[in-house]
Write a structure and sequence with these properties.
With about 230 residues, the protein is an alpha+beta fold. The protein contains 5 helices and 11 strands, in the order E-E-E-E-H-H-H-E-E-H-E-E-H-E-E-E. Strands 1, 2, 3, 4, 5, 6, 7, 8, 9, 10 and 11 form an 11-stranded mixed beta sheet that branches. The chain has a single domain, classed as Cathepsin B, Chain A (Alpha-Beta Complex). The N terminus is likely disordered.
């Protein structure tokens, strides 16, 4: 059986903060905390750094709803269900967004302040098993965003979108979002000068659909990581 890895980094509360960001020209991306390079780290004369975005295609940018249970405070069920929906279109057709969102709310014993279960991985297992599939769900300890770099890069390259539960990052505090890609720079020397990072879909109500959120990996304090292997 082909091994598929879905990564989930989880939060306890859904809070998107107001942050100092700029709207990039010609696309719908927001660059959170991507600061100009200090003079001491400007590339050598004649070298220009170009950001490269590596994205998973086929993800739907789902938003928390303005109706139903715990309206506007269901970041983890929304992010998790959107990833399960992705896999529903990639060989696991029983997984649908609306059904799995409600199932995750129930399995996580979700309230306004977040999940109320001892084992978040077990809640995802419960929802997946109820749809007739058997996934191996493994959890990982909290860490800084750059700690997960190799794992997330591999997942994106394999077409396997993660979900990250962010404890703290520029503009975000305890909030789950879908990772739709990562960015780095060319030439390679610019990675050390500018820093690499992740690209997210934010499920907060009112966030423009398909707007990309870019956050440097080193600026993220991640709360939880799950990998799901069918």
């Amino acid at each position: 059986m082909k091994k598929i890895t879905v990564i989930l980094t989880l939060l306890m509360v859904c809070t998107a903060l107001t942050f100092n960001a700029t709207l990039a020209q010609g696309d719908r991306s927001i660059e959170a905390n991507l600061q100009p390079m200090p003079t001491s780290t400007v590339p050598p004369l004649g070298v220009q750094c170009q950001r490269i975005e590596h994205l998973v295609s086929g993800m739907i940018d789902r938003k928390q709803t303005a109706s139903g249970p715990y309206l506007g405070t269901t970041c983890l069920p929304t992010a998790g269900a959107s990833v399960l929906e992705y896999w529903g279109a990639h060989g696991y057709p029983n997984l649908t967004y609306a059904e799995e969102r409600m199932s995750l709310i129930s399995a996580l014993d979700w309230h306004h302040s977040g999940p109320h279960v001892d084992c978040i991985a077990c809640a995802f297992d419960q929802v997946i098993d109820a749809n007739g599939y058997s996934f191996s769900v493994e959890d990982h300890p909290s860490a800084t965003g750059d700690t997960y770099w190799d794992t997330i890069v591999q997942a994106i390259q394999n077409g396997q979108p993660p979900v990250m539960w962010i404890l703290d990052a520029p503009g975000y505090h305890q909030h789950a979002m879908t990772v739709i890609g990562y960015y780095d720079w060319t030439p390679q020397a610019c990675n050390d000068l500018r820093g690499v990072g992740y690209i997210f879909f934010d499920n907060t109500m009112g966030t423009p659909v398909n707007q990309k959120i870019l956050i440097p990996a080193e600026d993220i304090n991640a709360g939880y990581l799950l990998t799901l292997n069918p």
